[in-house]
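Most newcomers find our protein records easier to grasp once they have seen one. Read left to right, the backbone structure tokens trace the chain's path through space. Once this layout is familiar, the rest of the handout is easier to follow. The record below serves as our worked example for the rest of this section:


***
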Amino acid sequence: MQAFYALIDRLDRCDGDEKAALEAMLWDTFGTTACVLALDMSGFSRTVRAEGIVGYLARIRRMQQVSTPVVISAGGEVVKYTADNLMAVFEHASQAVAAALEIRHACLAMREPLEVSIGLASGRFLYVPQTDCFGDTVNVAFKLAEDIAGNGDILATDIVLAQLGKEVAPSDWRHMEISGLQLRFAQVH
């Protein structure tokens, strides 16, 4: 992460040709094209206010224990857990969809089901392995998971579904503007 932030810091202090060269260096060093899986546990604020944080922390830990082996076995990498969120990266959209379906099933099948929503987006973004990801693809995955999807939903962008070769009926596409972004997505079953 130090190398990443060193480039960002240099970029912030320069202009013109040097800025363009540093930006190109950032993309050359940390750029990737992959599929991002964003998971958000539903009901965090409501539950913590009603029941307190300690019980919810146990739920978050169960989500982590369930999702980590699923992501790894599907060929992905857990980038990070932040609060009640998971960010994972997969080389192929099919791996991300398989992981999302298995995570949802495992969370909903628990004795005390965990409410989760998942967003999937594919594209180019900056990736610091096992640390963080930055870019539109990451933002879109989290917008789908946190702001649009309901409990048990897996929402995928048109790019993800195209990579899967899935035909989606025109009536199943959803279009939404959120935070100034035009999104086209559909439910994954």
Observations:
- The mean pLDDT is 95.
- The two ends are 36 Å apart (CA to CA).
- The beta strands are 31-41, 77-82, 85-90, 116-128, 132-134, 154-157, 174-178, 181-187.
